[in-house]
Design goal:
Layout: E1 2-3, H1 14-32, H2 41-56, E2 59-67, E3 76-82, E4 86-103, E5 106-124, E6 134-136, E7 143-145, E8 168-176, H3 182-207, H4 209-212, H5 214-217, H6 221-257, H7 267-278, H8 284-300, E9 322-339, E10 342-356, E11 361-375, E12 389-390, E13 397-398, E14 421-427
Antiparallel strand pairs: 1-3, 2-4, 3-4, 4-5, 5-8, 6-7, 9-10, 10-11, 11-14, 12-13
Helix pairs in contact: 1-2, 2-8, 3-6
């Protein structure tokens, strides 16, 4: 595990193209239930559950993820981690999210949030990526493409673990962004400049109305021209000052709204240090992406008790009103306990949530207390997916998103042997 700061565009452009394809396809996945063929199966399943939630509530959610700088579609790489088979890299770009919620054709909520989109793209350490090569389904023999089998055979529905599908997006989330692009700076400064020019003129009119009121200036053309020039020139630096002031207010507002998140600072290092003593291959980035995925999938599930990876009590009924949630940028650790070959960690996860009940649709920052557990005597498989589990008893492969027992031998599957399980989820404080 480590950090690299290269631009993610490689010689062929495969990585950057897929990152952008995921971004542009995400809106259709949420709004219309369409699959993103090269997305991880867990992402596909979570998006499917979210779409079903929206439909059950009789809502329409227009969801558009756009580039805030149309001239720059390049993703930048940040942290990465790998094991013997796979390498994952977190990449980001400045994006915007437009959401419009409608019921019976009437708009009941809309927003446009400036964000940074983070996508984790996973690739095999070696090998080619013949996504468009023809491939016969091993189960029914139907001809498809390698990429076409990503979400299961279109004819028989069988899922397969296929390294040929890499690289693929295995996690994503948005963070609100107080930063600005060059285009946004230009637009913001122009508005501030106009505001400053109007303010200077109003102040002049108040200070010397007999000179600067429009009807008095009209009597002296030369003074009118000089006044206009003075206002225009003096407003150049004043526009910058005004814009800087607005940005400062924006940053202060963000700081106050994030005061609770400040409590999480330092907890990551303690948790990571303790986990690495138990499991040297531990990756905090992997744990975070997995934790977010489990929380989202559990919340969007109609019956969380059916989920293989959830072992907690029934969720608060209000969680069934959630139609969209994005990571709020903080994951704190409240407690850590070892129990034999198992480790249990209680986290405090911050999300930005869109609720929809019978009366209204509204946005609210929300904290969840989530407890996770897994075995520590088995190495982490960084490409593990609950949609394609191999039964440890009989070796059969099956989709464990909704069934906890192997359909072939009947033995109960223990998710903690392969990955983290969510053992409790509730609203936090």
């Amino acid at each position: 595990m480590g950090y690299n700061f290269f631009n993610i565009v490689d010689v062929s452009g495969t990585f950057n193209q897929k990152l952008n394809d995921f971004r542009t396809s995400l809106g259709a996945a949420v709004s219309k239930g369409k699959n993103i063929t090269f997305a991880d199966s867990d992402i596909t399943y979570s998006l499917k559950l979210q779409r079903e939630r929206i439909v059950r509530k009789g809502l329409e959610l227009d969801y558009d993820v756009y580039l805030r700088d149309e001239n720059d579609d390049r993703f930048t790489a940040g942290s990465n981690w790998k094991d013997a088979h796979y390498e994952s890299t977190v990449c980001n770009n400045q994006c915007g999210i437009k959401r419009i919620v409608k019921k019976n054709g009437k708009t009941c909520y809309k927003d446009d949030r400036k964000s940074i989109l983070y996508e984790t793209i996973t690739d095999v350490v070696t090998g080619a990526h013949p996504d468009d090569d023809p491939f016969c389904c091993p189960n029914c023999g139907a001809v498809s493409t390698v990429a076409g089998l990503q979400n299961g055979c279109a004819y028989c529905g069988t899922r397969f673990q296929m390294d040929e599908l890499f690289p693929k997006v295995t996690s994503y989330y948005f963070l609100d962004d107080v930063g600005i692009t060059k285009g946004e700076f230009k637009t913001g400064y122009i508005k501030s400049y106009i505001f400053a020019a109007i303010a200077v003129f109003i102040i002049a009119c108040i200070a010397k109305p007999e000179v600067y009121l429009p009807w008095n200036l009209m009597l002296h053309p030369s003074k009118l021209i000089s006044t206009i020039l003075i206002i225009l020139l003096s407003s150049i630096p004043l526009g910058y000052v005004t814009y800087a002031y607005f940005l400062l207010i924006r940053l202060i507002g963000r700081a106050f709204s994030s005061s609770d998140k400040m409590e999480t600072i330092g907890s990551r290092k303690k948790f990571e240090t303790r986990m690495k003593k138990i499991s040297p291959e531990f990756s905090f980035e992997y744990f975070t992406s997995k934790a977010l995925s489990l929380i989202k999938t559990t919340i969007f599930s109609e019956n969380e008790k059916e989920l293989t990876f959830y072992e907690g009590a029934a969720l608060d009924p209000k969680m069934k009103d959630i139609i969209d949630l994005n990571y709020g940028g903080a994951l704190g650790f409240q407690s850590f306990r070892e129990e034999g070959n198992y480790v249990k960690v209680v986290t405090k996860a911050f999300f930005d949530v869109l609720f929809a009940n019978d009366k209204k649709v509204y946005y609210k920052p929300q904290v969840f207390t989530a407890t996770f557990m897994r075995r520590t005597d088995i190495p982490v498989n960084f490409n593990f997916s609950m949609t394609r589990i191999a039964c440890p008893s009989c070796g059969a492969s099956f989709d464990a998103t909704r069934i906890k027992n192997c359909p072939y031998c009947g033995n109960k599957y223990e998710i903690t042997s392969d990955d983290w399980a969510l053992v409790d989820l509730k609203y936090g404080k």
